[in-house]
Amino acid sequence: MMERFSEWLAEGDLGRYLLEREQAYFDGAVADAFGYHAVQLGLPGHDFLRANRIPLKLVADPDGPAELACLAEALPFASNSLDLVVLPHTLDFTTHPHQVLREVERVLMPEGRVVLTGFNPWSLWGAKRLAAGRYEVPWRGQFLSLPRIKDWLELMELEPDGGSFMAYAPPFSRGDWLHRFAFMEAAGDRWWPLAAGVYGISAVKRMRGLRLITPTWGVAKKAARGLAVAGGNDRHHVARQAQETDPHDPGPA
């Protein structure tokens, strides 16, 4: 199904309209992610990692001309091995979206990042899905709600730290009609962000219980009070320490 969706993005006016906005979102969301290994799960015909500077990047997909053929539900990567994973509608077109996120959490390193997009069911795009039926892409997708995705992310200790809404125009198949509703793009983020056809969200893998260990400076200062200063008046220091230890000793004459 993802292969057909990839073709849909490149073929018609509506697909190209959506692709342009999602490409812009991914370009901004992954630009500052750092590390050594990045993976895009799905849509091998489109490069959503192009703006990232991580040296080792690949696309994984069970179908199509991907560099690695694998299922998103069973990733062939070691645990804690990837720095960045992008999911362009991967959860919309899998029968096990929760398991896919579990796999992503497993393979991400601590502080690694996942960036994903999904269709918003509470939008004009979601309404068309209900009206048109679920026989063609993209309407065959699951259209998982953003609150549900956030709940899954937080359950897996993937902490959302950014996001965006896009594709506010009604899902017309003709470009001239999309152009007529271009004003909705400019006003959407301000007036009706939750009505966008697509959402994007990024999250970071947090390791609960890890904390930075810092010196206990108060204890260190107390311990240092009984130390002689190198090159200083050691005899006077030792005598003073002995006097403080034994109050009946008058000390040196």
From TrEMBL:
MF terms per GO, please?
Answer: S-adenosylmethionine-dependent methyltransferase activity
Q: Where is the composition biased (Basic and acidic residues)?
A: 243-253
Name the UniProt key words of this record, in alphabetical order: Methyltransferase, Transferase
Q: Which domain of life is it from?
A: Bacteria
Return any one Pfam family short name.
Methyltransf_11
Task: Show the InterPro entries listed in the entry.
Answer: Methyltransf_11, SAM-dependent_MTases_sf
Region annotated Disordered, chain positions? 231-253
BP term (GO), one: methylation
Q: Which residues form the Methyltransferase type domain?
A: 70-116
Protein name according to UniProt: Class I SAM-dependent methyltransferase
- Organism encoding this protein: Crenobacter cavernae
